[in-house]
Design a protein that fits this description.
The protein is an alpha/beta fold and 296 residues long. The chain has 10 helices and 13 strands. A 6-stranded mixed beta sheet has the order 5-8-10-11-12-9, sandwiched between helices. Strands 1-4-3-2-13 form a 5-stranded mixed beta sheet, sandwiched between helices. The N and C termini lie far apart (67 Å). This is GTP cyclohydrolase 1 type 2 homolog.
Length: 296
């Protein structure tokens, strides 16, 4: 029977994959709770350290919960059990489950959030949308690549919807559904501030989350101007936009992280049992469309 690694060893391997130095200055990554000397036999991977996920970890007997989003991103003045964050901390400690967060450092990693999203959407020949300065090839925010076969924007949007976890929001699209597309940029999580990078990359479609009204409006207006300057119809202005739920665009990374941890531990002759949480932590629960034709 393989020996269980210590929490300190698991954390060292996770931080080798997702170096804390690559996290944004405002971020809060790394080990949140747990005894570094404790053995780790079961590791649960999830997007959010919410109560339902922590309960899942406790019920399974997980020794470590690895999440993408930090539990304590914003400062708190109390971790009393009656508070939101305090209840999470107490449940983790009393159940003997450590918590580790890899957030913006996992976004930028070579096999991080963006790489996993690109893979699940079928992109090939990928490269970072915004390479990290001075970093190794493959490290940086987002990915750009091409589809194995050109398709229509509508068909690709349907593929995105089928490839990602189902959420109340579903998939929103801005662009001509009949237009042919072959190149794609993706960025898991909030990608509104990277619309300019997507345009500069020259791709046909940009897939991300949390796109805002004004950013999308300006991007589509600019795309129409670009198309007109090239002698193309305004409706063919690119990039077209696909907006997914934040949780859904980051969820594919969990399988990458779990597989990579098992692979890295094998070099020590140690192993852990891993599980990817299937709890949907998207906060929205329903969506209602206006009945009848959409107003002109």
């Amino acid at each position: 029977m393989s020996q269980a690694p210590s929490l300190a060893r698991v954390v060292a391997l996770l931080e080798a994959r997702y170096p804390p130095s690559t996290a944004e200055d405002w971020d809060a990554v790394g080990l949140v709770t747990g005894d570094p000397a404790a053995p780790v036999r079961k590791v649960l991977f999830a997007v959010d350290p919410v109560a339902a996920v922590i309960a899942e970890a406790a019920a399974w007997g997980a020794d470590l919960l690895v999440t993408h989003h930090p539990l304590l991103l914003r400062g708190v003045h109390s971790v009393a059990a009656g508070t939101l964050k305090g209840q999470a901390v107490h449940t983790l400690i009393t159940s003997g489950c450590a918590l580790f967060a890899a957030h913006t450092n996992a976004d930028a990693a070579e096999r991080g959030v963006a790489a996993a999203l690109a893979a699940v959407l079928g992109l090939v020949e990928t490269a970072p949308l915004e390479p990290a300065p001075g970093a190794a090839p493959g490290v940086g925010l987002g990915r750009v690549g091409r589809l194995a076969r050109p398709t229509t924007l509508g068909a690709f949007a349907a593929h995105v919807a089928a490839a990602l976890p189902e959420t109340a929001q579903g998939i929103r699209v801005a662009g001509d559904l009949d237009a042919q597309v072959s190149t794609v940029a993706v960025l898991g999580g909030s990608g509104d501030s990277h619309l300019g990078a997507a345009r500069a990359s020259g791709v046909d479609v940009y897939v991300t989350s949390d796109l805002k009204h004004h950013g999308v409006s300006d991007a589509r207006e600019q795309a129409a101007l670009d198309a007109a300057a090239d002698g193309r119809p305004a409706r063919d202005g690119r990039p077209f936009l696909i907006d997914t739920a934040h949780f859904a665009s980051e969820w594919p990374w969990l399988a990458y992280a779990a597989a990579d941890l098992v692979h890295d531990l094998a070099t020590d002759g140690t192993t852990v049992e891993t599980r990817v949480s299937t709890v949907t932590t998207d906060p929205w629960t329903a969506r209602f469309a206006r009945p009848g034709p959409t107003p002109a």
